[in-house]
Design goal:
The complex is a heterodimer.
Chain A (H helix, E strand, L loop, with lengths): L1 H17 L1 H37 L4 E7 L2 E3 L1 E2 L1 H7 L4 E14 L4 E7 L9 E4 L1 H6 L7 E5 L5 E9 L5 H4 L2 E4 L1 H8 L5 E2 L1 E6 L5 H11 L3 E5 H39 L3 H12 L4 H33 L6 H4 L17 H28 L2 H6 L1
Parallel strand pairs in A: 5-9, 6-8
Antiparallel strand pairs in A: 1-2, 1-11, 1-12, 3-10, 4-5, 4-11, 6-9, 7-8
Chain B lengths: L1 E10 L7 E11 L4 E5 L6 H8 L7 E6 L2 E2 L5 H11 E4 L11 H6 L9 H14 L15 H13 L5 E5 L7 H16 L3 E5 L3 H4 L6 E6 L2 E4 L5
Classes of the chains: A alpha+beta, B alpha/beta.
Chain lengths: ~375, ~230
C-alpha cells in the first residue's frame, strides 16, 4: 500500500516539474503572501511579548496629578500622604518629559533616572539619537532648555541597542540638570511611582489614593499592559486590513488556478483512468499536488517571514507598526513564535488550496475515462 | 472470454443532441483470438472498444468477462479489471508529454503498489524487447512516430494483460510501420493474448492471422464477420 502511495507521489512530483513555469509562478506568489501574513503575525506577537518584558520592570503603580483634566506636575508632599495608605511600599518622585529637537524634527524622551545617577553636565543617549545626531561617547550635544538658553551636555554613554525599542529616543540626565533644563522646582516631580507588595491590593490602593487625593489619577500596571496591548493590536489590525486585500486577491487567483483544470490536465486524468487508475488514485495525486505547492509555499513563506522579522528587523513595515516616531528604533526582536498563530496560518493557507485542487479533479475523475478522452 | 449482450450506448440522453452510438450490439470474443472491428468513421467502433475495455458503461445490456457479469460493478472494480486484464493502445497513443518513455510505460502499474525497482526492471525489459533501451530516459515528444508507438505497446503490456485493445493503431503509420505493428500483434497473439482491434486499414483487415473481422455501421454490427 505504501509503495502505491509512493509511486503516485513520484508521479505527482514529476507532474509538477513538467509544468515548471506555471507552478514556479504560483509558488512565488503563494510564498510571498504567506510570508507577508506570517511577518505581521510574528512581528506583532514578538512586539507584544517585548512590550510585556518591558512592563516587568514597570512600577506597580504610577500616580499623576491632574489639572483641568490634563496632567500636571505633582507636589512631592503627595508622596508622604500616599505612603500612609496601607499596602503601599515605597513612593518615589519621577522626573521625565519630552524635548523637541527642531533641527531634525524629532521628539526625545528625557528622564532623570533615580536608580542610575548620571553625572552633572553629562547625558546618556539612545541609539536613535546617536544615529541621527551623529553623536558618540565624548561628543558634546547642545540642547535648548525651557528658558531658551542652549546648554551643552557631554555624551557619557550611548544606550545599548538591545533595549532600543524603548530607549531609542531616550536622554538620561542628572536630576539637577533636568530640573534646571525644564525649570521644574525641587518640590515637584512629573509623577510618582509606587511599589505595592501584594498585586491584588493594587485596585483597592488606587481607589484609596483617589479618595485621599481627588486631583490625582493612579495608573496600575495592568492598565499600562492593556494600553500597550490595544495599541499594538490596533496597529497590527491596521496592517492586517491592508494585507487582507492582498490575501483576497491571492485567494481569487489561487481558487481560479486550483479549481479549474486545463484541457491538458483533464486529458491526462482521462489517460490515467483509461490505464486503470481509480478515481481515488487521481484524487490522491491531485491532493498531493496541492499539498506540495501549498506546504512548500507555507514553509518557505514562514521561513522568509522569520528571516524578515527576526534577522532583517522587519524592514518592510516598521514605519507602520512602530508608530509615528521620527526615530525608528534600529533593533532586532527576540524571536517569539506562537504555535497557535502558525497553526491558524496553516489552516487558512494550506487547507483551502489543497481542497480547491481536489474538487475539479474529482469532477473530471468521476466521469467515464472514454468521455474525458473524447472531450 | 468477453461477451456483450444487446448493448446500447446513448450519449447526451434526453437532450436535443441525443445520440445512439451502439444500438443493441451482441458480440462475443474467444480467448487467444485476434478480432478486428471494421467500419467507417462514426460507426461506433471506439464506443464498442470502450465498453469492451470497461472504460465506459453501457446505457443498457450486459457485459460478461471471464463468465462473470461486470456491467454494474463499482468503478474501482472496473478500474482494477481495466488495469490488470486489459492493455490499451490508442490511436493517438495518448502518451503523457514531458515524461520519459520509461515513466510512461510504468504508469498503468503505479496503482498496483509494486516496488518501483521491480517496476523499473519490468519496464526496462519491455523497452529492451522493443529495441528502445537507449530511449528509456528520452521525453516522449523527442521520439519518432515508430518509437512512440512501440512505447505505447510496451505500456499496454506492463501489467501483462490477457487482452489487448487497440483503437485504429495504424491510422497514422506508413506501410512499413503498420507491417511492423502487425508483426508485434502476431507475436502477442502467439504469447496467448486476446486481441481486439478497431481499424478500417486494409492491411489490418486483410492480415492472414486475423481470426475474425466484424463490420459495424451506424451503431450496429452489419454482419457477424467471416472467420479468417
Amino acid at each position: 500500500m505504501i509503495e502505491k502511495q509512493r509511486n503516485i507521489l513520484d508521479f505527482t512530483l514529476s507532474s509538477l516539474l513538467r509544468r515548471k513555469g506555471k507552478n514556479a509562478a504560483l509558488l512565488i506568489v503563494y510564498t510571498l503572501v504567506v510570508s507577508l501574513l506570517a511577518s505581521v503575525l510574528f512581528f506583532t506577537h514578538a512586539l507584544r511579548k517585548e512590550a510585556g518584558l518591558v512592563l516587568t520592570d514597570a512600577p506597580d503603580m504610577v500616580v499623576q496629578k491632574l489639572l483641568a483634566g490634563r496632567y500636571d506636575l505633582v507636589p512631592l508632599t503627595y508622596a508622604d500622604r500616599i505612603k500612609a495608605v496601607r499596602g503601599v511600599g515605597t513612593v518615589r518622585g519621577r522626573l521625565w518629559g519630552y524635548y523637541f529637537d527642531a533641527g531634525i524634527g524629532a521628539n526625545y524622551t528625557v528622564m532623570a533616572p533615580g536608580d542610575q545617577p548620571v553625572a552633572a553636565g553629562s547625558i546618556s543617549i539612545g541609539e536613535g539619537i546617536a544615529r541621527t545626531r551623529k553623536a558618540s561617547e565624548g561628543d558634546v550635544l547642545p540642547l535648548r532648555g525651557q528658558d531658551g538658553e542652549v546648554r551643552l551636555f557631554q555624551v557619557a554613554q550611548v544606550l545599548s541597542p538591545q533595549s532600543s525599542l524603548v530607549s531609542s529616543d531616550l536622554i538620561l540626565m542628572s536630576e539637577r540638570d533636568f530640573r534646571e533644563f525644564f525649570s521644574i522646582p525641587s518640590t515637584h516631580a512629573t509623577d510618582l511611582v509606587l511599589t505595592i507588595a501584594n498585586p491584588r491590593e493594587r485596585a483597592t490602593i488606587a481607589r484609596k489614593i483617589t479618595q485621599a487625593l481627588p486631583d490625582t489619577r493612579p495608573i496600575i500596571r495592568d492598565d499600562i499592559a492593556r494600553t500597550y496591548d490595544s495599541v499594538f493590536s490596533w496597529r497590527s489590525g491596521l496592517l492586517l486590513v491592508i494585507l487582507a486585500s492582498v490575501v483576497v486577491s491571492f485567494l481569487i487567483f489561487a481558487w481560479d488556478r486550483a479549481s479549474g483544470l486545463s484541457a491538458e490536465e483533464k486529458y491526462e486524468i482521462g489517460i490515467l483512468k483509461a490505464l486503470g487508475w481509480e478515481t481515488s488514485d487521481v484524487l490522491f495525486m491531485k491532493f498531493c499536488e496541492g499539498l506540495v505547492i501549498s506546504l512548500t509555499s507555507f514553509l518557505a513563506g514562514v521561513l522568509l517571514a522569520y528571516v524578515h522579522v527576526f534577522v532583517a528587523s522587519s524592514s518592510l513595515f516598521q514605519p507602520v507598526l512602530k508608530g509615528w516616531s521620527v526615530l525608528y528604533p534600529d533593533f532586532k526582536l527576540i524571536p517569539f513564535i506562537d504555535a497557535f498563530q502558525v497553526a491558524t496560518l496553516f489552516f487558512f493557507t494550506v487547507v483551502p488550496y489543497s481542497v480547491a485542487v481536489v474538487i475539479p479533479a474529482w469532477r473530471a475523475a468521476t466521469v467515464d475515462p472514454d468521455a474525458v478522452m473524447r472531450a | 472470454m468477453i461477451e456483450l449482450k444487446n448493448v446500447r450506448k446513448i450519449y447526451n440522453s434526453g437532450r436535443p443532441n441525443e445520440f445512439a452510438a451502439l444500438k443493441g450490439v451482441s458480440f462475443d470474443c474467444e480467448a487467444r483470438t485476434f478480432t478486428v472491428i471494421k467500419g467507417p468513421s462514426g460507426s461506433g467502433k471506439t464506443t464498442l472498444l470502450s465498453i469492451l475495455g470497461c472504460m465506459a458503461r453501457p446505457t443498457s445490456g450486459r457485459i460478461m468477462f471471464r463468465e462473470r457479469e461486470i456491467t454494474s460493478l463499482p468503478e474501482r472494480f472496473l478500474a482494477e479489471i481495466r488495469r490488470n486484464a486489459f492493455g490499451f493502445i490508442f490511436q493517438q497513443y495518448n502518451l503523457i508529454k514531458g515524461m520519459t518513455a520509461l515513466e510512461n510505460i510504468m504508469l498503468p502499474a503505479y496503482p498496483g503498489g509494486e516496488k518501483r525497482s521491480v517496476l523499473e526492471k519490468r519496464a526496462m525489459a519491455l523497452l529492451d524487447h522493443f529495441n528502445l533501451c537507449g530511449k528509456a530516459l528520452s521525453q516522449i515528444e523527442r521520439l519518432s512516430g515508430g518509437e512512440a508507438q512501440r512505447v505505447a505497446i510496451a505500456r499496454a503490456l506492463i501489467n501483462d494483460p490477457a487482452v489487448i485493445i487497440a483503437d485504429e493503431p495504424t491510422a497514422h503509420l506508413d506501410t512499413g510501420l503498420s507491417r511492423e505493428f502487425m508483426e508485434t500483434m502476431l507475436s502477442l497473439k502467439r504469447e496467448g493474448r486476446t486481441i481486439v482491434m478497431a481499424s478500417h486499414d486494409t492491411l489490418v483487415c486483410g492480415s492472414a492471422f486475423v481470426d475474425r473481422v466484424i463490420e459495424m455501421r451506424d451503431g450496429s454490427l452489419e454482419c457477424k464477420g467471416a472467420e479468417a
